[in-house]
Amino acid sequence: MRILIVEDEPDLLRSLAQALREEGYAVDTAADGEDGLYKAENYEYDTIVLDVMLPKMDGWEILARLRKTKKTPVLMLTARDQSQDRVRGLDTGADDYVVKPFDLSELFARVRALIRRSQNKTTNVIEIGDVKIDTAARNVFLADKPVELTAREYSLVEFLAMHRGEVVTRTQLYEHLFDENDDTFSNLLDVHVSNVRKKLGAEFIVTRRGHGYCIE
Amino acid sequence: MKLFNSIKWRLQIWYGLILVAVLAGFGATAYQLEYNQQMRGIDDELHRRFAVLAQATHPHPHGPNGQGPMDGMPGQPPDDMPGQMQPDGPGQAQGGSFHLPPQATGLFDASDPNGFYFIIEGRDGKEVARGGNVPSSGYIPFNPDYVKINRSPELKNPNPPPTFTQGGFRQVFDLTPNGETVRIGCSIAPQLKGLHNNAWELAGLGVIILLFGLAGGLWISSSALKPVESISAAAVKISAGDLSQRINVAEAESELGQLAVTLNSTFARLEAAFKQQKQFASDAAHELRTPVTVILTQTQTALKRERDAKEYKETVEACHRAAERMKKLISALLELTRLDAGQERIKRLKFDFSQTVGDCVELIRPLAAERHVELQSEIEPVAITGDPSRLAQVVTNLLTNAIQYNHEGGEVRVKLRRQDHFAVLTVSDSGIGIPPEDMTRIFDRFHRVDRSRTGMNAGLGLSISKAIIDAHGGSIEASSPESGGTIFTVRLQVA
Fold first, then answer.
1. In this structure, are strands B116-121 and B181-187 parallel, antiparallel, or unpaired?
2. What is the number of other CB atoms lying within 10 angstroms of the CB of residue A210?
3. How many CB atoms lie within 10 A of CB B258?
4. Residue of B nearest to A12 (CA)
5. Residue A51's closest CA among A21, A29, A18?
6. Predicted ipTM > 0.90
7. Does pTM top 0.95 for this prediction?
8. pLDDT tens-digit profile of B362-403?
């Protein structure tokens, strides 16, 4: 899952990015409104964490412009908890909001919920045959036994499971699993797929040659 | 009691009392006038009859004394002929020599129950003659002392003789020179009855007028005090917390209307002050939220697992920066609050402002060099009265802004000169300038033109500068010429 954070306070941006990366997300960052809008419009994100007060272009404007082309879930970070601000945010097309100062675990929960809703899932648990994926705890079980996966491997499994039955292209996987700092031309993806097959069974991920991967 | 504390009811009570007094006075006067008129009518009748009777008792009008009609009475009363009645018309003379003249018979009609009567008594109190409808009782009985007192010779007979009222009868007395008492009277019962009825009518009318008057008074005082009610209703709502309430001013011209207008403007100022205070508090909270968020996310992330020393150091540094920012914000807020409350004492020293400005320019020069901004100054000596360190704070703030909001290679000009009675300091920069829509708000607290939070002064610097200049009785304003850049002008009275 790939997330964009648009926030102008450098310390906050850095710690948010670090925390979300440690949660296993691929994280892109933008320190001002123009950069944020550019990235939001040009990359596929699973969620955008958007601050309201930004230099060059504020959060409302980014949201309004983005909504003309994309329906990427947006979580607004507001420093004002007056209801008119919240109402405005939700009316402009924000999917959720968090008031500063917030608790990191609450922010994570809201990000998870946004991603889940955007994939039309209602629970945190996805079951595929013997494999059970708990997206809240980020655990995978095979025949009720926990399976150790790296963060990247888990993200791969989660993304494919969320798009169960669909063929997911390599480009899509790169876009959602790797952030702007990763070298997308590497064959890292093949390594991750092969590791997941070793741990969850060779048939778990099906390769559609020339198209991509799929969980059936 | 609440009723008596109400102005309306007090007014009403006083008004009612005054109205009652006026009506009572008026009624009493009217009654008295009517009474007097009635009595005068009766007295005229009595005197007319008296004159006739006087003629009858003494046919020669001019006696030796020549002092009045009654002075011509016979010298000797006919004492020797008492008890004889002469049925000569309605009048009945008991004195043998007394004859009621024919023209007087109609004047003493015994058949009329309210008619006139006469009694003539001798010096010894014996009745000499009587006529007309003499009542059996009620009239004033003979009393020589009374007669003496009232008609003593020293009293120079007034003309006409006096009348008296007693027991429902009106009588006129006179004493002839030889001591006979002539008395003419009549019952005034019908007149008294009429007057009595009149009095009741007057009283009834008075009550009706009083009721109408009270109703009118109530209406007048109610309508006059109605604005007071609406004023107090509005004040109650305001004290309950609804500061947007205003008094409905129907007639701005009246005294209460003026009061309402004054109160409304007071309420408006109160509301504005409250709103500003609320905005200030909310802005202050808002400014504190971001550094708190930084500290929270930094520490929560760091504590999630074991980190190496470098990472911990970074976290601590970030927290330190956030805390520094909060410290600056809090001291700025405190300073503003103190300046607002007038607690911050502004010193009143006479000093050369050019020295302060020069020092500030030198202090800020490294920052200008760092930003590659050229700093030019043109400073003339001018003495002012004020607080040097506070004013230095203002100058530093203006210079810092001018450098921060400038572009690289730009320039900042500082000019201090004396103009009439003012020391005029201008700080102009070659930055992007301030959009006209922001110009009125740049001195507002927490207002920042670019809405970003990159500056560390959190948008309070200009507010503080303005507060300091205001406390010095000076003025500070900003302008952005078409050619670009911003000019801040500070005016302070010279010492």
1. antiparallel
2. 6
3. 13
4. B294
5. A29
6. no
7. no
8. 998 998 898 899 999 999 999 999 999 889 989 998 998 888
